[in-house]
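Typical record was shown:
=====
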Amino acid sequence: MKTILIVDDEEKIREVVASYLQMEGYPTIQSGTGQQALELVRGGNVDLLILDLMLPDMSGEDVCKAIRQFSPVPVIMLTAKVSEDDRVQGLTLGADDYVVKPFSPRELTARVKAILRRTQDDTLLAEFIAFHNDDLVIRPMQHEVYKMGKLISLTPNEYKLLLILAHHPNRTLTREELVEKVLGFDFEGDNRSIDQHVKNLRQKIEVDPKKPQYIVTVFSVGYRFTGGES
């Protein structure tokens, strides 16, 4: 089941939201600060983030912006700000939805379900996601990938492979999983065929393909996308 991270400095709000989500079967994690939220998302065990914009240590906007530097995890912003400009700004920073306080926990739960349904096919919902200080930028809506500001040409399989890996940052995906997701259930070749696609993709997105920052080999298992963290 998908794990939901609830970030709000008010414990009562966190508990109410958590209780509704747990009734629907979703495991939840709670955080009262932006910094802790970033650490939890970096851990790779968060499938959706409910993010309040008024946090004690940093703004929710800054948290969302920082997350979009290394993870495509869906973000629902919670805020008392009601203007259209505020909503547009939140979506521009990479949020996937925007809920105004006071809100209905049932409606919020419905929005969580809707977003998670849309992510089941390993698509990226964010308008863009940037890694390693904009060294690598993916724009899913345009099907474009940029390396150091330059548009790079990827084959359909390379592009799909990159999206699948980036959709699961810091998680090891086996060769079998990648073959199934990239090449399809009916692919009859060897699982090692995915290695060639990874090799080709590394040639295009890595500064040094022999010392990859993004697509790391997990010996005898598969690959992990690290987001270019040093």
Q: What stands out?
A: Residues 79 and 86 are 9 Å apart (CA to CA).
